[in-house]
Specification:
Helix content is 57%, strand content 8%. The protein is built from seven helices and four strands. Helix 2 (22-46) packs across helix 7 (141-163) and helix 5 (95-107) crosses helix 6. The strands form two sheets. The protein has a two-stranded antiparallel ribbon with strand order 1-2. The protein has a two-stranded antiparallel sheet with strand order 3-4.
Length: 166
């Protein structure tokens, strides 16, 4: 779940502006992505339609960056990030999945309206049955955020280079 951005994604005027300033551009990119990249991703998650990812708080908070020698990597280490990004095929849910669904049902208070000890489990089984029979389409958050990330990154690089501060 990595979306690559390179100098080829920017226009010729920008390429000419940053020519010969590679080290400064890398530093500016790292600074920009640490803040702007994460904010753009969060905004994109909030704007996801028709359905936002469920339990999206952890998903939004866990976007992180890692500096690499020639730039930065923006990624989400959350276990289910790949499912949110790319979706999943319909398939049976195992015992661990049922247990996770039961925890999710309990956390969201879905069973309070239904009386009985088995209500959490029965709701979890109903969700599992739905998952077994239906695909979950991907939200493609990173792919949809890419144009905004590139625009913000270009503006930030110009701002950092003209200020000369890193």
């Amino acid at each position: 779940m990595i979306e690559r951005v390179s100098l080829a994604d920017f226009g010729p005027k920008f390429k000419a502006y940053v020519a010969g300033r590679y080290t400064d551009v890398v530093k500016a990119t790292q600074l920009s992505m640490r803040t702007s990249g994460k904010m753009i991703i969060e905004r994109t998650v909030d704007e996801t339609t028709p359905h936002k990812p469920v339990d999206n708080g952890d998903y939004k908070r866990n976007w992180t960056t890692s500096n690499i020698p020639n730039g930065v990597v923006l990624y989400n280490p959350t276990k289910y990030a790949g499912i949110i990004e790319y979706g999943r095929r319909a398939s049976p849910v195992g015992k661990k999945g049922i247990a996770a669904l039961m925890g999710w049902v309990h956390r969201h208070g879905m069973a309070t309206a239904i009386k009985g000890a088995g209500s959490v489990k029965s709701i979890a089984f109903a969700i599992a049955n739905h998952m077994k029979n239906n695909d979950t389409p991907g939200k493609f958050v990173l792919q949809r955020a890419r144009p905004a990330i590139i625009a913000e990154l270009q503006a930030d690089i110009v701002k950092f280079l003209s200020a000369g501060k890193f």
